[in-house]
Fold this protein.
Amino acid sequence: MAPSRPPTDRRFTTDRRFTTARGLILAVVLASYVLSFFHRTAPASIAGEVTRAFGIPRAVMGTLAATYFYVYTLMQVPVGVLADAWGPRRLLTVGGLLAGIGSLTFGLAPTWEVAAVGRTLVGIGVSVAFLSALKINATWFPARSFASLNGVTLLAGNLGAVVAGAPLAWAVTVTSWRSVFAGLGVLSLAIGVASWFIVRDRPEDAGFPVVNPHAFEGGGRTGWTGALREVAANPATWPGFLVNMGVAGAFFAFAGLWAVPYLVEVHGMSQVLAGQHGSLLLLGVAVGAVLVGVLSDRLGSRVGVMRAFTVAFALSWTPWLLDVRWPLPATLAWFGLMGLLIPGFTLTWTVAKEVNRPQFSGMATAMVNVGGFLGGGILQPLIGWQLDLGRTAGQPGAAWSRALAIMAGSAALGAAFSFLVRGRVRGMLP
């Protein structure tokens, strides 16, 4: 039987001690989440430096970068279970310490194998951030604020990815990528320590009244294997998984690793200018994440907005496939537009919850989310392997054309699978 909880006290809204404590907790949680996005996309800005430092082919560089996604994919279900068993405070503390050790290992690595170990530890450490943020949002804030807070969380995370674009590209011109990641390691360790001393799983753990008495209903700490089986056996779960795999996979492969090398080698841009394009792409994603949520609510259609955005994103690859040479303002604007269209896949998270039983909503979201990280983990080394083949054959231009076609094809497949998604929203059209 679940432990009883003290009755909800609405006076918390005027308690300055409460709002201060909640604000500090949210700041620590968001810092952890921002760091996870930074690590996700940072390889795009340092791919050339890392490749030269370790003397590795691009397929190996793709595998090194994708190690994050392999680990993140495998950790989704275990993190969901641990979030219930341990709570966000312990998860974020352990995650911050592991990410810190991993980032230091990556920055100081003498060989790419050691760097891969560091990248693996980073992936494990930051994999706890998103679900921890969701649980903090659910327990420290009223239920009516949950959707808005999730939007703010995604916005903050994507701003971390923006910092991993142009600012990181500039930073490695004045210092080394090793120094940057060593510094990030120290920051991650500090966030881990701060999580233990500042974060509390529930308001009552800090002596405050319950804010959201229904936050812990339904899931529990047991029965996760049954939840996994039921969600996996539901045919309505898998189209969203495939949309994520195609669209998010293309996004992670491009923005997370190969966009900057593509602009440098094919369009002759400087590292910093290419990084600015990457930052605009990610800034577009941050804005688009909010936009798709607002549109889906206003129009009363999750699936319709998802289809419109994913199809438009697939079409947005056309100029690069046709090797169009635009002036600089046009390429910057187009990267921003591509980013704006990418977050259509995020609506699969909402649909996954709606087509599965409410008590299994966390498991459903985690399973669909796996698709994107699996897609990124497959595409990043696949593109590197394709580029290595082109370089060996003396046809780097043709190799880039094939690489772009692979990523665009992945986005197109994801868009096609969106037409198999069936939403079920109470009081709304699908």
